[in-house]
Amino acid sequence: MGAESPRLRYPGGRSRDDSAPPPDAPYAALERMNRFQEPEARRIIRDLALPARSRGLDVGCGIGLWALWLAEAVGRGGHVLGIEPEIEKVEAARERARGAARVQFERGEATAIPLADRSVDWVWYGDVLHHVVDTQAALRECLRVLHPGGRVIVKESQVPAAMFLPGHPELERRIQVAEIRRTLGEGAGRSFQERRQTTPAALRAAGLEPRMRTYVLERRAPLSAAAHDYIQHTVFSRNWGDRLRELLDAEDWRARMRVCDEASAENVLRSPDYYCLYPITVFSARVPGAPRRSRRRRRA
Q1: How far apart are CA 217 and CA 277, in angstroms?
Q2: Residues 240 and 175 sit within 8 Å (Cβ to Cβ)
Q3: Cα dihedral sign, 67-153-45-49
Q4: DSSP assignment string, 71-91
Q5: In angstroms, rounded to a whole number, what is the distance separating the alpha carbons of residues 109 and 124?
Q6: What secondary structure letter does DSSP report for 233?
Q7: Which of 273, 252, 283, 118 is nearest to 179 (CA)?
Q8: Which partner from 66, 133, 261, 287 sits 20 to 30 angstroms from 48, CA to CA?
Q9: Is the peptide bond before 169 cis (omega within 30 degrees of 0)?
Q10: Residue 243 CB neighbour total at 10 angstroms
Q11: Which pairing describes strands 8-9 and 15-16: parallel, antiparallel, or unpaired?
Q12: Which residue, 162, 149, 278, is CA-closest to 218?
């Protein structure tokens, strides 16, 4: 997977080769997470051993970085279609992928995939399936578009919770509980954490036999620009910011400000001993039936 990361473009004609998006960039939080995960992302994709020249689908592709990396893996003759319900994200993905081969982005829903039956060799859900309230409807659509012997691959970050505040376990635990409570509404009464953790049961209910593998990302001081940007701006300022204020008591909010606020002298990221641990779990299952042979072999 030695290809360079695609050069990203931003509004106003700006482009950047470094890992940190401008604070005002559209969908900066998505890009920060992708760049934070990128070294392990490429290892995960390599470990999947996707067939050369295969055709894949990235459901809920966001701004398209994972689709680009997946397209690199299938090589010449392969193809990846990324679908995303928000047209603005589709357009952002197309802009970022301008000039890239083997990848295409279209508007589409997980429960209404715009593809014919048995048209792809594998389907990828990257931190997406826990957002789909009707999980079984999404998996039925997935099975419809897969060839016999094809693969369902579900990547979920933080199935067990990450650790971002070393030395502050009680505070971090209460923040995590507040996050769980915040997502109950979006998950139709089931938190995102619960939905992530019940992925194997969802796959089994769809008639599949799931396997799983967990990767642990370790980031230590001095942090890279990508790691610092993600932890400070996405985790501390966005995920643990004002959206949790009413779910934490006054003492915990003050403690959170002390160790997470970017301007605080006691911000944990200032410590030369800082580290974080961040898990990514990959669930996979194969559709019953013989895998489709490569197009090269069929022509032989």
Answers
A1: 6
A2: yes
A3: negative
A4: HHHH-TT-EEEEEES-HHHHH
A5: 13
A6: I
A7: 252
A8: 133
A9: no
A10: 12
A11: antiparallel
A12: 278
Whether 123 contacts 152, CB under 8 Å = yes
Q: In terms of Cα–Cα distance, which of 290, 288, 130 is closest to 209?
A: 288
Measured between alpha carbons, how far is 23 from 101 in angstroms, rounded to an integer?
29
The pLDDT profile of the chain, 300 residues, written as one tens digit per residue, is 333 344 433 333 333 334 455 555 658 889 999 999 999 999 999 999 999 999 999 999 999 999 999 999 999 999 999 999 999 999 999 998 998 889 999 999 999 999 999 999 999 999 999 999 999 999 999 999 999 999 999 999 999 999 999 999 999 999 999 999 999 988 889 999 999 999 999 999 999 999 999 999 999 999 999 999 999 999 999 999 999 999 999 999 999 999 999 999 999 999 999 999 999 999 999 999 877 665 444 443
Instruction: Give me the amino acid identity at 17.
Output: D
One-letter amino acid for residue 174 of the chain: R
In order of start, what are the domains of the chain with their CATH numbers? 27-287 (3.40.50.150)
* Amino acid at residue number 70: L
| Cα gap 66→84, rounded to integer Å | 13
The tokens of 161 are what?
């919770």
CB contact at 8 A, 187 and 194: yes
Residue 171 in contact with residue 299, Cβ under 8 Å? no
Closest CA to 67 of 79, 78, 58, 76: 58
Give the C-alpha distances (Å, rounded to integers) separating 223 from 159, 218, 226, 273, 280: 24, 10, 8, 11, 19
Q: What is the identity of the amino acid at 270?
A: R
Residue listed under structure tokens 């999947």: 48
Give the integer Cα–Cα distance in Å for 228 and 234: 10
DSSP one-letter string for 109-124: BTTB-SS-TT-EEEEE
Please report where in the chains the tokens 């993905």 appear, as a residue. Answer: 93
